[in-house]
Specification:
By secondary structure, this protein is α/β, with parallel strands linked by helices. The relative contact order is 0.20.
């Protein structure tokens, strides 16, 4: 089971929630995809860092970084990197970006092997 959390919270808040809910753990290889805005990296550097290990990996990605990924049509490269992770936390994402991420996961799977997804919103804008 892979867990993706899509939230409108700030990066730091999302990280803290990840640790408090035990979704993120000390010792994990946690990479932040934020295009160097809050101490993280871009898609290339994050993808390289996620190739080093096979388990215990997590990605934090900002809505701004996702906008660049979808705008430059790098969604396949992003998905390949994200699928190496046990956990993905997307923060500062809009309701439209949440829908795009769910659609990307569903549509990228081979026919007959579509993943089970659950998109649960906490408000009228989700």
């Amino acid at each position: 089971i892979k867990l993706w959390v899509l939230t409108g919270d700030k990066l730091e808040t999302a990280r803290n929630i990840g640790f408090s809910t035990k979704v993120l753990e000390d010792g994990m290889n946690i990479q932040t995809l934020d295009n160097f805005e809050e101490g993280g990296g871009d898609l290339r550097t994050v993808a390289e860092a996620l190739q080093a290990r096979s388990s215990g990996q997590a990605m934090m990605v900002t809505g701004k970084a996702l906008a660049g990924i979808f705008g430059q049509q790098e969604d396949k490269k992003f998905l390949e990197s994200a699928q190496r992770c046990d956990v993905l936390i997307a923060c500062r994402v809009s309701p439209m970006q949440k829908a795009e991420l769910v659609r990307l996961v569903r549509e990228s799977a081979p026919k007959g092997k579509e993943p089970v997804t659950a998109a649960i919103g906490d408000g009228a804008n989700d």
